[in-house]
């Protein structure tokens, strides 16, 4: 039984995490939030207070911390008494925050794979470059570290496990499809940090097919998917975190990730990429100033958090899992549909942040109850999906299943 | 009779000017070139020597000068003994260089209108904001200052005057059409300084129609032109320098400028503009660095000078002038066709630089001979076009005319 949460980060996802922790503070205890900029943390707490989100009276406090400084994070863990750290800061801080958790013996979770700011798209499996190197250290310290427990990666890993365990004897393929059919009304914007968003798509597209890593380039492989609620949508094979753990756990299956992109997004991305404006390497202006082009692109684009008030429409994210049951081919689509406007009304964030921010809170509740407090490092598909999906049903992200037998709640 | 030339600037156009001055140094005398970066001037002189361009033995010298410092330019004029200054530096230095010429009593010319780095697209007529305010000062000092004597503005102003004087009793419209049907083989590049190139197209499109200034936005008005050699080409109404003097000299005529753009250029431009990446106003990155987006775009794009070796194809720039002759409507198209590869072979620059750099040398030769040494400020259409076009025929930019009587050399 662990309690008291420390949230690292103060972006759109952190805001959702803070609201959801507050709504469940009877289980989670004290809530602390820390980032480099104290004012951003305080703004989030202010929005929690405005919505009256705290279920029971309790501690709700903001802190300034440099999450790249492992010792500073460890000190904050000690002074706050937090036993559960939810890291939703930039993808560059995973390893320092994880180390702080190992050093202090508290539970760790994040929602995206660690990245080195100077490297784009490393050798697969990506988790092998950073996080998995700390497996033994976690085991030795008895530290629960749940990697990638947002929606994708995260919930979609649980969906894969649910489908395989529940409806098949063996799995042959896992296709994760992420469609945002919402509209923010701007000429162009990314739904989360432009720097992280574009970095996802500038490298090699790795997929796991026929028992080996396959390489493609971005927007090379696309297909139209016909999905519940959002209908027909074009999605492209994309490199993504969960492919790198699911392929290790289910090496016999093809594992692919598909993300929906409109022609407009692809055009803007292509122009920026081909001009060199998405580069993380510095260029020198005629005036002699050293500048990283991607940082300038980020600076001119809308702040993703600013999109929330006007965002309408829905997201559909799910897993099409194919396999064999009793010698017959079988397939099942496990999915969630989320609504941008509902998310904004509840927690002041748009749907993309909502789907990423609710799952780590469900995971924190399972660590608090002990069900997921496994005392080792784990990717989500290595944990029992049922208590996770049960909590998600209750706290805002219900799971449905569509197969030959119809379209229904997963546990119907 | 004036002699000895000082070239200000060391870009692609300056290279053409240096070569052409060298080829005509029997008339022009000493040749000096000066810019902020001495090495760039020396590289140009090196290329002049490589091509053995000097017609007769003579002075050919490089200097460093900050052209924003009027006193420094004046001092350089005095020490070099130059009597003719060809300013092909950035559009931001016109007024300081012009002042240096007024202070020293030497002839001045440039190829583009003065710009303030912090202002995009000022009130028409553009010349009224800066250059024309020094008319009296030139008159008083007896200084010849020829404004905008590149190709467009410049040669096209002479084309308008030629057509009006030669083939009509009154003029009703002047449409200047600039088509580059060449190919540089890069994914995207601008043909001259990206900063100046994009600034041309981010402001209001001013045209002079029905006796008044009309406003449009960029790419709002387009039409297909069927031109000699380059064939059918789409061009868009664009703001441009020569509209601002021709409309003052021929207020009874509609004056429009049309520039050819491919769909690819328009798409890249539209993405960059809509994202805010063409802004000359600084933005602040997440890391706190102040950056002007347009400077970063310039830094990632190919250096226009680097396009020259691989540039193929032709340009066609001309004036469609309509009017009335003996009570009947009449129209004539006066034009030049230039070849990128020929330009490179002759002077090491591509065709766009060539068409801009040859005309000021023809003008310098007319100042040297006295024919255009008028002792006052003038736009090109205010000077006799015939000696100018005669020299251009000889030094690389022949003029042709197409009308009801056929397609022929202008003086056939």
Q: Let me know the average pLDDT of chain A.
A: 96
CATH topology of the largest domain in chain A: Dihydrodipicolinate Reductase, domain 2
CATH architecture of the largest domain in chain A: 2-Layer Sandwich
Low-confidence stretches of chain A: none
Organism (chains A, B): Aliigemmobacter aestuarii
InterPro entries (chains A, B): NAD(P)-bd_dom_sf, Sacchrp_dh-like_C, Sacchrp_dh_NADP-bd
Protein name (chains A, B): Saccharopine dehydrogenase family protein
Q: Strands, helices and their partners?
A:
2 copies of one chain form a homodimer.
Chain A (H helix, E strand, L loop, with lengths): L4 E4 L3 H12 L1 H4 L2 E5 L2 H13 L9 E5 L5 H11 L3 E4 L6 H11 L2 E4 L24 H7 L3 E3 L7 H13 L2 E11 L13 H9 L2 E5 L2 E5 L5 E6 L3 E7 L3 H9 L4 E7 L2 H13 L7 E2 L5 E2 L1 H8 L13 E12 L2 E12 H8 L3 H19 L7 E3 L5 H11 L4 E4 L2 E4 L3
Parallel strand pairs in A: 1-2, 1-4, 2-3, 4-5, 5-6, 6-17, 7-12
Antiparallel strand pairs in A: 7-15, 8-9, 10-11, 11-12, 13-14, 15-16, 16-18, 18-19
InterPro entries (chains A, B): NAD(P)-bd_dom_sf, Sacchrp_dh-like_C, Sacchrp_dh_NADP-bd
Protein name (chains A, B): Saccharopine dehydrogenase family protein
What keyword list fits this structure?
homodimer, 412 residues, alpha/beta, Rossmann fold, Dihydrodipicolinate Reductase, domain 2, 8-stranded mixed β-sheet, 7-stranded parallel β-sheet, 14 helices, 19 strands
């Amino acid at each position: 039984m662990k309690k008291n949460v420390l949230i690292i980060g103060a972006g759109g996802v952190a805001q959702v995490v803070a609201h959801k922790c507050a709504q469940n503070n009877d289980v989670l205890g004290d809530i602390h939030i820390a980032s480099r900029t104290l004012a951003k943390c305080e703004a989030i707490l202010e929005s929690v207070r405005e919505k009256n989100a705290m279920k029971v009276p309790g501690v709700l406090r903001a802190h300034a911390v440099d999450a790249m400084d492992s010792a500073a994070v460890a000190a904050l863990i000690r002074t706050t008494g937090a036993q559960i750290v939810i890291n939703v800061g930039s993808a560059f801080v995973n390893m320092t925050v994880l180390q702080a958790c190992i050093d202090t013996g508290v539970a760790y979770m994040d929602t995206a794979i660690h990245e080195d700011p100077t490297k784009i798209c490393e050798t697969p499996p990506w988790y092998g470059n950073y996080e998995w190197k700390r497996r033994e250290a976690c085991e030795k310290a008895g530290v629960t570290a749940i990697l990638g427990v947002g929606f994708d990666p995260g919930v979609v890993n649980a969906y894969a496990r649910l489908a395989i365990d529940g409806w098949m004897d063996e799995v042959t393929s896992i296709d994760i499809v992420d469609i945002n059919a919402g509209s923010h009304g701007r000429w162009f914007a990314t739904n989360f940090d432009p720097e992280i968003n574009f970095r996802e798509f500038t490298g090699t597209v790795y997929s796991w097919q026929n028992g080996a890593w396959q390489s493609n380039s971005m927007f090379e492989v696309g297909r139209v998917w016909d999905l519940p609620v959002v209908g027909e949508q074009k999605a492209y094979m994309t490199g993504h975190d969960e492919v790198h753990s699911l392929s290790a756990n289910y090496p016999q299956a093809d594992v692919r990730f598909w993300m929906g992109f409109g022609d407009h997004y692809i055009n803007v991305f292509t122009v920026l990429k081909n001009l060199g404006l998405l580069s993380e390497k510095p260029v020198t202006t005629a005036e002699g100033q050293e500048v990283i082009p991607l940082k300038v692109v980020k600076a001119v684009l809308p702040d993703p958090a600013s999109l929330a008030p006007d965002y309408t429409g829905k997201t559909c994210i799910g897993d099409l899992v194919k396999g064999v049951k009793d010698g017959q081919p079988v397939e099942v689509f496990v999915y969630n549909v989320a609504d941008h406007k509902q998310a904004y009304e509840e927690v002041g964030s748009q749907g993309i942040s909502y789907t990423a921010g609710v799952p780590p809170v469900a995971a924190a509740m399972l660590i608090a109850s002990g069900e997921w407090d496994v005392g080792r490092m784990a990717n989500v598909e290595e944990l029992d999906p049922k208590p996770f999906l049960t909590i998600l049903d209750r706290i805002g992200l219900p799971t449905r299943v569509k197969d030959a037998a119809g379209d229904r709640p997963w546990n119907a």
